[in-house]
């Protein structure tokens, strides 16, 4: 799966490069992603963060609006920005709703037959994309990897991190901005899981719900979460960070291991994300470079 270089932009002494390739996980469709390489990457392999964007977003959203690149450059860390879903599968109903189908892959592997050929973002993120990047020779040290994301991408980051702890190649830390923390009890998650998964909500609980997964996770964990009180989706009970807080506490995880902060007056936007972006980059950098 050869990478095709699409574009490149200089930023903070490093390079933001867009690539595409034919993705087996996404049914042979083109997969786009951006990678930011800090100045150190010219001399040596560097640690890596994967950023998962939210509903309706693309591989460009976090790279252009997140405010991550300056601090990634200062810390000598690469950031990979994948897309949020396959594009152009042509499945009936794929573009009927903004919160399901195109732009709304939910970072899972679909098991419902209608979606299972193309909608496999979990495998794309955790297996295919790292392997393609390794084969390309890009200077990334995959033994030092962490993951973060926003909203739907926050859900993805938390669940992928927690699931990775069961493997021989875990992510070292996870963080999230306004994640869908308990998706099997939130309208967005219910819609996605009943559509993509043949086993619906019961199938999702075992792998795709951070609140469920954290009760079974073995510590110590390395999780940082920020949500805002003026977030309309928080008010609509889509995010449910209080459920994640309660589950982590009941499982005996300390606040140092699972640090969930409710920020007064902040909303769901990239103004919120960019405000706390430096803290998230620095949080991961301390762990990745320990």
From TrEMBL:
According to UniProt, the reaction catalysed is: S-formylglutathione + H2O = formate + glutathione + H(+)
Concerning InterPro entries, the annotation shows:
AB_hydrolase_fold, Esterase-like, S-formylglutathione_hydrol
Biological processes annotated in GO: formaldehyde catabolic process
Task: Please provide, alphabetically and separated by semicolons, the GO molecular function terms listed in this UniProt record.
Answer: carboxylic ester hydrolase activity; S-formylglutathione hydrolase activity
The record's active-site residues are 151 (charge relay system), 231 (charge relay system), 268 (charge relay system)
The keyword Cytoplasm belongs to this UniProt entry's keyword annotation: yes
Domain of life, per lineage: Eukaryota
Compartments in which it is found: Cytoplasm
This protein's record includes keyword Cytoplasm: yes
Task: Provide the E.C. number(s) assigned to this enzyme.
Answer: 3.1.2.12
Q: Which terms are listed as keywords in the entry?
A: Cytoplasm, Hydrolase, Serine esterase
In the UniProt record, which is one GO cellular component term? cytosol
The protein's job, in short, is: Serine hydrolase involved in the detoxification of formaldehyde.
Into which family does the record put it?
A: Belongs to the esterase D family.
Q: What is this protein called?
A: S-formylglutathione hydrolase
Native species of this protein? Answer: Sistotremastrum niveocremeum HHB9708
């Amino acid at each position: 799966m050869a990478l095709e270089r699409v574009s490149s932009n200089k930023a903070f002494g490093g390079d933001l490069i867009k690539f595409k390739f034919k993705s087996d996980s996404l049914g042979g469709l083109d997969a786009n992603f951006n990678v930011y390489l800090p100045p150190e990457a010219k001399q040596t392999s560097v640690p890596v963060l994967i950023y998962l964007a939210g509903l309706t977003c693309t591989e460009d959203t976090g790279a252009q609006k997140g405010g991550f690149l300056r601090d990634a450059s200062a810390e000598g860390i690469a950031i990979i920005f994948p897309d949020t879903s396959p594009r152009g599968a042509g499945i009936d109903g794929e573009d009927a709703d903004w919160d399901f189908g195109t732009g709304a892959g939910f970072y899972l592997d679909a098991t419902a037959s209608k979606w299972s050929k193309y909608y496999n973002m979990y495998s794309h993120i955790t297996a295919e994309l790292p392997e393609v990047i390794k084969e390309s020779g890009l200077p990334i040290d995959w033994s030092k990897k962490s993951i973060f994301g926003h909203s739907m991408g926050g859900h993805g980051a938390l669940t992928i991190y927690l699931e990775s702890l069961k493997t021989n190649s875990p992510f070292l830390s996870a963080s999230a901005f306004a994640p869908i923390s308990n998706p099997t009890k939130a309208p967005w998650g219910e819609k996605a899981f009943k559509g993509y998964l043949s086993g619906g909500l019961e199938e999702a609980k075992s792998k795709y719900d951070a609140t469920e997964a954290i009760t079974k996770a073995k510590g110590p964990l390395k999780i940082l979460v920020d949500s805002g009180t003026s977030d309309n989706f928080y008010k609509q009970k889509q995010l449910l960070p209080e459920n994640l807080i309660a589950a982590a506490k009941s499982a005996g995880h300390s606040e140092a291991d699972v640090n969930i902060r409710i920020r007064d007056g902040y909303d769901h936007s990239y103004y919120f994300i960019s405000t706390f972006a430096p803290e998230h980059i620095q949080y991961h950098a301390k762990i990745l470079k320990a």
